[in-house]
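seq:
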Amino acid sequence: MEEPQPCCRATEIHTTNPPGPEDAVTITIRGGVYYQDSMVKLGRRDQYLTIKNYEEEEVSLSGGVPLDIAWQKEGGVHTGVFTGSCSGAYYGEHRLLPARSPNIEEWGPNRNIAVGPYHTVHDL
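struct:
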């Protein structure tokens, strides 16, 4: 697997004058997924900044972390072990869900797991 790289590095420039159209800058990014380890913060001073993809290449800036998991595949089921915590996990463009019982009969990509059916406890 290729080591993820930041899409770009910028040097902060401080000026006393507000930016104008003559200060317009375009950043062109080649296709790929770029994993960022910090937030990309834009403000009023960036109003003449254009960020675009190169030609028709698809670009994604991600705050996610790529995982190196040894996936096991059995039929249409992929199983992997991740030790840590996260708010969501994806395999390609498909949102993963934790194992649950009972199974959801009609499952599709990116569906919320907090839907029925649920187990019901009786006679406590």
